[in-house]
């Protein structure tokens, strides 16, 4: 049986090899994925890589140097940004900042010039979509699958019968920018009152620094778990997540991201999600799974997305 990472040409089996990238505001991770296995990987500083000059050429040089003599038939790149439905254009990447203060890649077709530089097919997608690709692939999930990933912001993705939900403009599942009722907080996107102003790693960090200086998250959750700021944070994440559950009625809900670390009160979050989910359904039997991510899950998800996307 031929695996998902291979193709047939005549009677010869050609194994698929993909270079996957996960570009964040702090780190850029890259890996060579052959036959669905991460063969080798590396991490670079995002600010240093794109500090100045042509960011697409800088990315092309980095990929070319990493690739070396290995052949890859696709390059798949995940950005912390909505990406156009053509999987080519980065719409807005405010966390990738150049020395002159401009946003690298924003509004640019990255795939076509990068493909010309490297001589292979290039796909570009949102990083949360790639995390869901990783989770869905690992769990062999089908039907409707939703992922909520709470990192610096609140990322979300949905997959329906194995296909990512992209939307008309590639902006589907921007859950972090659902309007939060009566909020007056200014979001990094420029809009007032976005959910991730309350439900995100940034909100958690602001809470820690302003209300509990000098303490770790583990100490705060253990010693101050019933305090209003802690309760508000957990409820904000739960309400935003429950909104998606009520909309999509998923077969599986994945929860992940750096904010939901081992210190985070996961059972309490799960109970708050269920409390805010419509009864009897989709609350009853809701399959909630906490993702088992590592540093290269985004890289693997990028590769899985490329392997599941038809060439040409």
Would you kindly provide a written description of the structure presented here, covering whatever features stand out?
This protein has 312 residues and is of the alpha/beta class. The protein has 9 helices and 14 strands. The strands form 4 sheets. Strands 5-4-3-6-9 form a 5-stranded mixed β-sheet, sandwiched between helices. It has a 5-stranded mixed β-sheet with strand order 12-11-10-13-14, with helices on both faces. A two-stranded antiparallel sheet has the order 1-2. Helix 2 (55-67) crosses helix 3, helix 4 crosses helix 9 and helix 7 packs across helix 8. It is globular. The protein starts with 5 loop residues before the first strand and ends in a 5-residue tail after the last helix.
Strand order in space, largest sheet: 5-4-3-6-9
Number of strands: 14
Label the structural class. Answer: alpha/beta
Q: Main beta sheet, described? A: 5 strands, mixed
Helix content: 25-40%
Q: Identify the quaternary structure here.
A: single chain
Characterize the overall form: globular
Compute the separation of the termini in Å: 24 Å
Strand content of the residues, in percent?
15-25%
**SSE sequence, one letter per element:** EEEEEHHEEEHEHEEEHHHEHEH
Mean pLDDT: 91
Gyration radius, rounded: 20 Å
Number of helices: 9
Low-confidence stretches: 1-15
Lay out the secondary structure.
Layout: E1 6-9, E2 12-15, E3 17-23, E4 27-34, E5 37-45, H1 46-49, H2 55-67, E6 74-79, E7 89-90, E8 108-109, H3 111-118, E9 121-126, H4 127-139, E10 144-150, E11 154-160, E12 163-164, H5 201-211, H6 217-223, H7 228-248, E13 252-256, H8 266-275, E14 288-290, H9 297-307
Parallel strand pairs: 3-6, 6-9, 10-13, 13-14
Antiparallel strand pairs: 1-2, 3-4, 4-5, 7-8, 10-11, 11-12
């Amino acid at each position: 049986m031929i695996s998902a990472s291979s193709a047939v040409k005549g009677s010869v089996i050609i194994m698929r090899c993909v270079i996957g990238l996960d570009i964040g505001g702090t780190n850029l991770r890259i890996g060579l994925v052959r036959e669905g296995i991460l063969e080798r990987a590396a991490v670079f500083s995002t600010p240093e890589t794109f500090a100045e000059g042509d960011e697409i050429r800088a990315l092309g040089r980095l990929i070319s140097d990493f690739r070396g003599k290995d052949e890859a038939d696709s390059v798949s790149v995940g950005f912390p940004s909505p990406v156009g439905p053509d999987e080519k254009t980065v719409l807005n990447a405010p966390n990738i900042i150049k020395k002159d203060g401009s946003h690298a890649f924003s509004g640019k077709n990255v795939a076509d010039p990068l493909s010309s530089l490297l001589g292979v097919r290039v796909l570009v997608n949102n990083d949360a979509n790639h995390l869901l690709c990783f989770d869905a692939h690992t769990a062999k999930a089908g039907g409707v699958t939703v992922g909520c990933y709470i990192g610096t912001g609140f990322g979300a993705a949905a997959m329906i019968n194995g296909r990512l939900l992209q939307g008309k403009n590639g902006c589907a599942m921007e859950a972090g920018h659902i309007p939060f009722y009566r909020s007056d907080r200014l979001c990094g996107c420029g809009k007032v009152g976005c959910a991730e102003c309350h439900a995100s790693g940034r909100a958690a960090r602001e809470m820690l620094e302003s209300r509990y200086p000098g303490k770790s998250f583990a100490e705060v959750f253990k010693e101050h778990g019933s305090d209003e700021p802690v309760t508000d944070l957990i409820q904000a994440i739960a309400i935003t997540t429950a909104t998606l559950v009520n909309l999509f009625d998923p077969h599986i809900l994945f929860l992940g991201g750096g904010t939901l670390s081992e210190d985070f009160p996961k059972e309490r979050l799960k109970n708050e999600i269920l409390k805010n989910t419509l009864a009897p359904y989709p609350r009853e039997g809701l399959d909630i799974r906490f993702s088992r991510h590592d540093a290269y899950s985004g890289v693997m998800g990028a590769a899985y997305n490329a392997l599941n996307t038809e060439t040409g």
